[in-house]
Amino acid sequence: MTNTATLATLSGSDLAADPNWWRQASVYQIYPRSFSDSNGDGLGDIKGITAKVPYLKELGIDAVWLSPFYPSALADGGYDVDDYRDVDPKLGTLADFDEMSAALHAAGIKLIADIVPNHSSDRHEWFQEALAAPRGSAARERYIFRDGLGENGELPPSDWESVFGGPAWERITEPDGTPGQWYMHIFAKEQPDLNWANREIRDDFLKTLRFWSDRGVDGFRVDVAHALTKDLTEPLISKVELSAANTGTDGFPDGSHPFWDRDEVHEVYAEWREVFNEYNPPRTAVAEAWVHATRRARYASPEGLGQAFNFDLLQADFDAGEFREIIARNLAEATESGASSTWVFSNHDVVRHATRYGLPQGGGKHAQGQDGKGWLLAGAPVEELDVELGLRRARAATLLMLALPGSAYLYQGEELGLQEVAEIPDAERQDPTFFRNKGVEIGRDGCRVPLPWAPEGTSFGFGAGGAHLPQPAWFGRYAVAAQDGVEGSTLELYRKALKLRRELQTSEELQWQESGSADVLRFSRPGGWQTVTNFGDAPVDLPAGEVLASSGPLEDGQLPANTTVWLR
Ligand code: GLC
Predict the structure, then answer these.
(1) CA dihedral in degrees (552, 553, 555, 556; nearest 10)?
(2) Which one of 63, 317, 461, 498 has the minimum C-beta count within 10 Å?
(3) Do residues 447 and 77 lie in contact, with contact meaning Cβ atoms separated by under 8 Å?
(4) DSSP β-bridge partners for residue 184
């Protein structure tokens, strides 16, 4: 395992060619429709991203992960893809994409594209063809069609539920106008699941991987990587039997679930790896796989995708013991698989961590939704939110994360300390979770509200028009321009830490140090650099050393509660 590349000593072009660039990268997730709007239509776009490349460069990130930018009716925020090899005309053109990619690369920033292989959209030409074709046709074989149960096929083929709520099957009308077969959709009904037992699907995705790799994409984030292959041997097992068989804490521990985390899925990724390795440096990938912890390493193996998200910290309370256990376990797992660890507190699917940590019970609970996914449960006690505490803890947690070996995944707006937006009127919500699950979950729109760039004005500088999700009045306080150059602002903290991280990280080693308190975590990294986080309620003494960065002001040389410091 090459884990000792001294990134700090590599020059720009060496770094671009370094096959290990991803191992300790800081990756910034852009949710394109909510980042920056260049044409004033209320929707962020590709040109908007290109215009902000100087901002990204100054932030000090190594790579951008772009959530789906493909043609889409936005039934699920772009995760319903009409065409895998094009750009949504609402967002721009392929030429705009190339221009953005060139600008990012010129700024020394890699580009990771989100790829959505489990399902297409219902507007994809394949699905339209399947609807027009008869039962048993090759066109239907690209998806998962079944006859219904009941006398006239009026009941779904099984009682499985969609992750977004409601049944996982939808009945179609046959070309002759009669009620017909059912198709499977683990997510929204606009997201029919593809049939990965079909060679044509596999080949087409290899083509898509090459298409974007040829265009300069450096890596892929693989959406619901654990769902592609399915065992749909009949009779289909009922959800009651399934939940009885699920003895694991987070997913099935043995690959026996009919559609989550089956062993065969790794055959798909072995083929993808061959494609990745056709390029120099090889294209990288990170799996979004909400699987049992014991099975994550399979996705992260060098013969597979190479890296997998670990959402453990994201689901943890702000608690020294929990953090330490998670960090130690994941570093050990990474050593075993040959991957590097991944760390993440926020993304487009979960409540922002500055908000979670301001809620009672330390925050972990509020990241959780159904199926262990981190979607805000309706009824999260927003009125009990302590904004100041949340932000303080978020800054401390992030500074700790940026000191860890492995890749750090950041979500747009967290560098501003942005809070979740709870006050979106029902009529303006977009997330299918909200509509399919009324009254149970309010969905993920609250972390997808367009970014504030300016403290006031039209859509707070997001664009010259409105914002596709309403921005609250308090957004201006968090604007980029309100924090730029302001000593102690969250933006300046991120900039400083990201820059230092690049300079300081030499190897992937971490050494725990005695902290003198169960509420304090302390570890060192090679190069005489150490990190101390105080998770407790009272200030603690600091070890000797020069303060390199601190998530909040020190008090008389002591480390206050909910604060992290880097020392040398
Ligand atoms: C992943 C995405 C999420 C999307 C779902 C279906 O979990 O992160 O946003 O809704 O897949 O594609």
Answers:
(1) 140
(2) 317
(3) no
(4) 169
Decide: 116 in ligand 1 pocket, CB within 6 A. yes
The protein residue whose alpha carbon is closest to atom 3 in ligand 1 is 349
Query: Is 278 a known active-site residue?
Result: yes
Q: Measure 29 CA to ligand 1 centroid, in angstroms.
A: 14
Phi, psi of 464 (to 5 degrees): -85, -10
Query: Distance between CA atoms of 155 and 149, rounded to whole angstroms?
Result: 5
Q: How far apart are CA 226 and CA 238, in angstroms?
A: 20
The yes-or-no verdict on residue 116 having pLDDT over 80 is yes
For residue 311 and ligand 1, the question of a CB distance below 6 A is answered with no
Q: Measured from the CB, is residue 182 less than 6 Å from ligand 1? A: no
Q: In the chain, what percentage of residues exceed pLDDT 90?
A: 82
Q: Which of 413, 566, 414, 416 is nearest to 501 (CA)?
A: 566
Q: Which residues contact 243 (CB under 8 A, 6 or more apart)?
A: none
Q: Which residues of 472-483 are buried (b: 16+ CB within 10 A; e: fewer)?
A: eeebbebbbbbb
- Across the range 456-482, mean pLDDT stands at 97
Q: What is the dihedral of CA 406, 411, 415, 416, to 10 degrees?
A: -160
Q: What is the DSSP string of 111-174?
A: EEEEE--SB--TTSHHHHHHHHS-TT-TTGGGB-EE--BSTTS-B-SS--B-TTSSBSEEEEE-
For a substitution probing ligand 1, which of 66, 69, 79 has the most ligand atoms within 8 Å of its CB?
Answer: 79
CA nearest 401: which of 296, 501, 496?
501
Q: What is the band of 460 on the pLDDT scale with cuts at 50, 70, 90?
A: very high
Give the count of beta carbons closer than 10 Å to the beta carbon of residue 262.
19
193 in ligand 1 pocket by Cβ < 6 Å? Answer: no
CA 499 – CA 505 distance, rounded (Å)? 10
How far does residue 79's CA lie from ligand 1's centre (Å)? 6
Instruction: Spell out the alpha helix ranges (H) of 282-408.
Output: 296-300, 320-337, 353-356, 364-367, 387-401
Q: Is 424 in the pocket of ligand 1 (CB under 6 A)?
A: no
Q: Which position among 214, 263, 267, 278 bears the catalytic label?
A: 278
Whether the per-residue pLDDT at 11 is higher than 60: the answer is no
Q: Which helix (H) or strand (E) holds 244?
A: helix 239-245
**Kind and range of the H or E element at 266?**
helix 265-276
Alpha carbon of 314 to ligand 1 centroid (Å): 16
101, 95 contact by CB (below 8 A):
no
Contact 444, 349 (CB under 8 A): yes
For 279-319, strand residue ranges (E) read 284-287
Higher-confidence residue: 383 or 22?
A: 22
pTM over 0.85: yes
Q: CA-CA distance, 520 to 533, in Å (whole number)?
A: 6
Catalytic status, residue 263: no
